[in-house]
Amino acid sequence: MHCLWQSLDNKNAGFWSTFVPLWLAASPNSKGSPQSYGKGKLPPGPTPLPIIGNILHVDVKDISSSLRNFSKAYGPVFTLYFGMKPTVVLHGYEAIKEALIDLGEEFSGRGHSPVAERASKNFGVIFSNGKRWKEIRRFSLMTLRNFGMGKRSTEDRIQEEARCLVEALRETNASPCDPTFILACAPCNVICSIIFQKRFEYTDQDFLNLLEKLDENTQIVSSPWMQFCNAFPMLIDYFPGSHNKLLNNVAYLRSYFLEKVKEHQESLDINNPRDFIDCFLIKMEQEKHNQESEFITENLIITVSDLFVAGTGTSTTLRYGLLLLMKHPKVSAKIQEEINHVVGRHRSPCMQDRSSMPYTDAVVHEIQRYIDIIPNNLPHAVTRDIKFRNYFIPKGTTILTSLSSVLHDNKEFSNPEVFDPGHFLDDSGNFKKSDYFMPFSAGKRICLGEGLARMELFLFLTTILQKFTLKPLVDPKDIDTTSVASGFVSVPPSYQACFIPA
Questions:
Q1: Which of 45, 174, 422, 473 could form a disulfide with 78, with the two C-beta atoms 3.0–4.6 Å apart?
Q2: Structural domains in the chain (count)
Q3: Annotated binding site for heme
């Protein structure tokens, strides 16, 4: 840990060197006894230091590994202090299921996340709470369904975008290319068509600017520095660092969406809503005399931004998935055999094909399981004082759920650290569901766009492999698939590939 602060923004290194002697003197709570906090009797955990808590006990580059080690010492439910406030950590399927599913309402709050709160001002659908969250989420789900999320019309949009993606990849002429931005364009266009009825050409400068801001923010939120900013909110106001870049990027996106909203207001036809923004504007008009209405401009802008960011996140899974398929060419070849048998070469893959393609379905699930895209989930919070496994957790306490501990459970998945589609196949080669498959979280805060993401992953991957053979620039055995950042999002390493027309 002597070099921990070197992994942070260089301008802030001196601040953390002050605390290292304190950390070296810290000792864990070896007896594992419950901790007191306010009127609560929290689960046991390592002894926190004054002011900084347990932050220096945690490897901010690999939080999941630290949580796994703590669970061995303290069990599946334990307490860590990130700064001065406690966070109750749930580790393993049983504890997470009991909280998020069996006690879904009680654990449905959004936990403390200072950087996100600064960006969202507690509006929108991801970082809001209480009545606001329930109303905006209910409206968003209903509206997305009405525009075909999980239905035929959205499938048509994805298939159309898959054809555009294929053309963009074909234009690389089988030459080495970094597919990051090409792969980001496709899911981004799908969510844009739902939000404001527009798809962009892949060379459109506004489009590329949006994608660049999103990519920068993905890197920033997964950095060690961001974990420290969330633990010590004073850093956001008084220290330089990448958090300022993130907030500037967020402001850029919000400004762009505000312009889209203004355009919609000028051309709105309340009898013929075109997209999500129109539906929200109509709802605002219906509730304009309600002083307590949540359907206001601030909620519209930030909800649209939330949907845009979440909807584009599929690109990271796609990019990681293609890297894994190059690492395992036999898996790619077997998918292509299944595509040839079920779909053929000429028609577009559709969702109806999935039930006849168990191996491909298993690979899509295994990609999501293996890469563990959001290892520690978004923070939850308890909505009331609650007794949980003989501990008393006060209302508002932040809850961290280790999705890694579920997706990489060695009792459910025989070799969890190995990429193996067999984890989702039975002895007869049929697709096998698993309750442990939680890449989208679980319970009342499960990802709003789960259905859309599942559809995109299947259709984009099958369409790419129908039209191309993936060729890496190095021997497959030399491909490193280790995530380069996993603070919040597991980010794949940069790579180049050749897309050889099939």
A1: 45
A2: 1
A3: 447
**What CATH number should be reported for the domain holding residue 438?**
1.10.630.10
Residue 400 counted as domain residue: no
What one-character DSSP code corresponds to residue 177? Answer: B
Assigned domain for 10 exists:
no
- C-alpha torsion sign, points 339, 341, 344, 350: negative
pTM equals 0.90
Pairing of the two strands 398-402 and 85-91: parallel
Tens digits of per-residue pLDDT, 110-125?
999 999 999 999 999 9
Instruction: Write out the H or E segment, with its range, that includes residue 303.
Output: helix 297-312
**Cα–Cα distance, 311 to 306 (Å, whole number):** 8
Q: Which of 261, 265, 233, 260 is nearest to 247 (CA)?
A: 233
Write out the residue range of the structural domain in which residue 152 sits. 114-372+411-501
The gap from C-alpha 240 to its chain's centroid, in whole angstroms, comes to 26
CA 489 to mean position of chain CA atoms: 6
| pLDDT for residue 213 | 93
Return d(Cα 327, Cα 303) in angstroms, integer. Answer: 38
Tens digits of residue pLDDT in 193-230 = 999 988 999 999 999 999 999 989 988 988 888 888 88
Residue 463 resides in a domain: yes
C-alpha angle with apex 309: 273 to 498, nearest 5 degrees? Answer: 110
Give just the sign of the alpha carbon dihedral 337, 341, 347, 351: negative
